[in-house]
Amino acid sequence: MTPLHVQALTALSRPLAHKFYRAQHSPMRAHRHDRVWVALQSEIVAALCLRPVPPGHWLTGLLVAPAYRRQGVACRLLEQVLAETEGPVWLFCDPELDAFYQRLGFTQCLELPPALAERLARYRRSKPLIALYR
Which domains does the chain have, with CATH numbers? Predict the structure, then answer.
């Protein structure tokens, strides 16, 4: 099996992440100011985005291709991204994923930057989400 490689994409390579998301039938997309990271194993098998939100980053778009789930790909991708990212990182997730993120050092967050607090309030109108940070 090809080893897993994690890297940040350049702005010119960002369309590769969009192609990955589309291939997974996901509506996720990287925005212009996002930093996009991928896990590669001869092809992109996972991706995530970090969006700048002063004084840190908002983690969005974490997706692992179904054939690579439950193999530690998300953990490996997140561990490297977090090791190379300064400042707090926030994310929103389904409550069922709380334990997964807690193993990576995330804790529940009661105070968010205003832009994230507003977004979370909108998202919670249609789905149960929790806010975590590290």
Answer: 5-133 (3.40.630.30)
